[in-house]
Amino acid sequence: MLERRVEDFINMEKVIEEFEAVTKDAGRVQIETLRKILEDNSEAEYLQNLGLNGRTDPQSFKNCVPLVTHQDLEPYINRMIDGDLSSILTSNPITTMSLSSGTTQGKPKFVPWNDELFETTVQIYKTSFAFRNKEFPITSGKALSFIYSSKQFKTKGGLAAGTATTNLFRNSRYIQQMQALKSQCCSPEEVIFGPDFHQSLYCHLLCGLIFCDEVQLVSSTFAHSIVHAFRTFEQLWEDLVADIRDGVLTDSVTVPSLRNAMSKILKPDPDLANIIKTKIMGLSNWYGLIPELFPNAKYVYGIMTGSMEPYLKKLRHYAGELPLLTSDYGSSEGWIATNVNPTLPPESALYTVLPQIGYFEFIPQNNGDSSFIGVDPEPVGLTQVKIGEEYEIVITTPAGLYRYRLGDVVKVMGFYNSTPQLKFIRRSNLLLTINIDKNTEKDLQLAVEEASKLLAEEKLEVVDYTSYVDVSKDPGHYVIIWEISGEASEEVLGECCNCLDKSFVDAGYTSSRKVNGIGALELRVVRRGTFQKILEHYIGLGSAVSQFKTPRCVGSNNTKVLQILNENVVNKCISSAFNN
Length: 580
Ligand code: AMP
Known about the structure:
The chain is α+β, with helices and mostly antiparallel strands. It binds adenosine monophosphate (AMP).
């Protein structure tokens, strides 16, 4: 009965037909979308002050409305946070705020959330599901989803606040939608909303094991949480198996709501406990853990591009032969694009812009053209972007952000009908730079991958990494920080350090290194668990594990993260790669 209702809920052919229609007419759909956003919000003080006088066409919009960053909007957002319920950015006052993860900037930012954003989320989820399910059909079953709510609180002025994913999970229609997408979480709500993520993670794993034959997919918002979960599984599996055998939840889960919810599903099951134990004993170095535990899982799902790429190797190890499918592309501020090519591996994933969920502009990147320094080129519209070019995305959303610079750089790889397909390139402000050098988080990732091959020979791996530039002494130099799975010898670390230094192939870097305009690269190794402390620091600021992204280049203003890193250094070495 429930299954029939679920089937009726989403008509996949219709979703694909609608997608085809809007993408064939992306230019017109964009004009319509802008018109609707501006008409719906014509009462907003922000728009009224800009003299649009009822005009809703793209040219008037461009002429009257400035490009803004979050900082420019802070005075408006702060008034809302303080309880001003007038029409500030939107006609209908904003009553909920999302807290963006802020892992790249160092501190979380408040951005408006409303029902229209929920609707765009539903559209994006339905679209990618319709395409995904054509290639990798899932039947009725459950999802082992490592999702966590953040702390929920009221702002000074009484607005509800939490991360965007928390606002999503809290929407009464969320569970219904997830059922329709056959992605209902196997853990009870109390686990998602639990106040302690270690305990929630334990219960997610336990629920996964209890429902192991029903699990059809393993997912999280960002891939980091999946890797983190199975690393934790490696540590705690014996406790989990004991709980299943005895039907008694470990004492280390202390939150009453979690204990209560788990008591309803945990029953003594020695047979299952034995099966799980036997499966684990049969694994070699945890390879293929996910399909072994969840034999009916069809794929592993979550955002796997951008700052998540460094986790792919480990994720593939756990996933064995199961396909890894990257999900959609969006932010707390609004959604952008969906994955309608699920068979592509995450490294070559394409995100197709949905032209009806927001109004999009693209600022061409100067990519080394010095005549552009200090001047930003004019943004172009969605259908005017060029294949092969990189752009910074500017979004206009139904939640009160107009011509908002998101800070992401993407590359146009092609078009689906008339809407662009994007590759995520980087956060625009994440750069290692001292003078004429410019290394992005991708350059850093490639250098780390290269150097970690030397560790692999010692059966060691880089668990996580970050970097910063140290300009406290002249010349400044790059500091790369690694957490390693075991202890590496001084000799191997020295080789890794040299390899890192040599692997930054940017001409500005190598030429500066040769003349000592940039000092020798330093590799620091931090204690096991240091990156966990960074994650906990962000959670303390109101972020959620679900949205956590390790900051790959730490800015000098991010003092707390720098402090955590510096306090935990156990070894360091200096490159001699450019010594004559
Ligand atoms: P948040 O601050 O938690 O709202 O995270 C939003 C940011 O996460 C985006 O601006 C991107 O930088 C990054 N992001 C989101 N989706 C993807 C994706 N599919 N691939 C790469 N990066 C992503």
